[in-house]
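On clarity, I found the account of how folds are encoded harder to follow than it need be. An entry of this sort, consisting of the sequence and the corresponding backbone structure tokens, reads as follows:
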Amino acid sequence: MDNENKEQQKTVLTKDDVLLTSLKLFADKGYFNTSLTDIKDALEIKTTRGIYQHFKTKQAIAETLYENILDSLSISIDDIRRRNRRSSEQLREIVDLLFKLTDEAPEVMKFLLQLRVEEFLPEQKPLMETAPYTKIKRIFQSGIKEGELRSIDPNLAYVYFFGIINQALIMVLNGVLNKNADSYQSQVWMTAWASIVKK
């Protein structure tokens, strides 16, 4: 009887089960190297029917993941902007968040920084046009206007600053930098901040 109940419980899948398992597989193997069968096997279910109850296609899973990650990031950025007035404080907290996510939720960061989302979700906006990134660009615009940041194109400021941040995080995710992201945060922050601060 207990074995029957366990087997029954295993087959009752939630949407979150499918999303979390898929996120891990996409991050580890890549989107194109992950099949619905891989997801089924990782979920330890007999058929893909349980997955189809929540998602019609693998692309639909990826689309939901992408939207959820961006929504969560957008909400976090709104909170950060409400708590801090200065651009430097806002950027510092965003960097704190990204480094924390790299250590605590590396699959999320791999999905954002390493997967070429435009290749498998061509209908979605490019990352640089999404809500979280638009909000970050506004922080640069505000910092430039208030004289805290160098007077350069806000898009260039974004590239200088997050080019350094993102590259460091990718190197942590790939194991090139072999300590936790947190170990490098202060050094990376100083270098990135120096590229945009008004001297």
About this structure: Confidence is low (pLDDT under 50) at residues 4-9. The first helix runs from residue 2 to 11. Residues 165 and 189 are 7 Å apart (CA to CA).
